[in-house]
Amino acid sequence: MNIYLDNASTTFPKPKAVADSIYNFLTKIGGNPGRANHDNALETNRLLIEARETIANFFNFDKIENIIFTSNITSSINILINGILKNGDHVITSSMEHNSVIRPLYRLKENHIIELDIVSANNFGFISPKDIENKIKENTKLVILNHASNVFGSIQPIQEVGKLCKKHNIFFIIDSAQSAGVLSIDFKTLNLSALAFTGHKSLFGPQGIGGFIINDDLNSICSPYTLGGTGSLSYSLTQPDFLPDKFEAGTLNMPGICGLLEGIKFINNEGINTIYEKNFYLRSHLLEELHNINNVILYDDINKADSYTSCLSLNVKDMDTSELSYILDNDYNIKNRSGLHCAPLAHKTVGTYPSGTVRLSISYFNTLEEINYVINSINNIIKLK
Q1: CATH code (residue 325)
Q2: In the Enzyme Commission scheme, what number(s) does this protein have (predicted)?
Q3: What mean pLDDT is reported for the chain?
Q4: Same domain, 50 and 119
Q5: What percentage of the chain carries pLDDT values higher than 70?
């Protein structure tokens, strides 16, 4: 048996329609949207509009021109952070963030451009909205948080934080890398200013495609990060100031956009609640059985089972994390990830720094048979230790 449980890094396998759509685009269409009037370019433009419409509907947003495509969620977050923040601004984030948020913020702090407060989560990886509110100052411009931890799966109280940001007139951005495609996300209900997304995780798209949704208020003060050709206003030496061209300089990754479009169609056809319920069932079963194995160390709050996505972290007492990961992969063909998972502050928060954890992350394509095999494998490893 060969089991893939590294879906928090990138999902595998993808729906067949995703690969088919990429192949179809590369072999039958292949045009460049907005750059010509021939059939290939016009068909590409039609697909691009369909992708924007599908993403807008998926996240409950009204204006398709505010759907911006980038190469990945890291690019999206960098565009937003560097386009919004100015000298003297104050930002609030959390200790559960991925380095895609922490590193650009930390550089701005080190260069004395912004003030930065990093709110600590509790031992299970959950932040408190009250702690966020206690950090708000007169110059607080932005709160940016991940929706769910890429290490422990803890889902943050985003709706409550969104209400706080609206109350205090602060921009609010979420990193949806671990939640989009797993949890239902409503841009309006959450009072978001922007939402950054990536294609290759639970949206079932290919690698190399991502983007963000930005509302008009945030767009009005956000500067473009990359300048160049857009296919529009070619006579002008300055970047267009209208969306999406303002943020989409250069040729778009249309094969990736086609794949992402089909990934979201797959989710819509299956039903996001169906996907969540299956993931929840498999994760709950895995967690319950691991709790019954001596010397397995888990980092979940058993009283908040419904407050996690489909990944979990574990260690085995008196066993090196990397060794456990290697044995799972080499001896049992269980694909996993070990280490700090690009989120060192999260590990410091929960107490797993510097060795990190072994992360097992479930997909809709995993089965109960596979999860039982994982449970038995971990039990065997401990018995043979």
Answers
A1: 3.90.1150.10
A2: 2.8.1.7
A3: 97
A4: yes
A5: 100
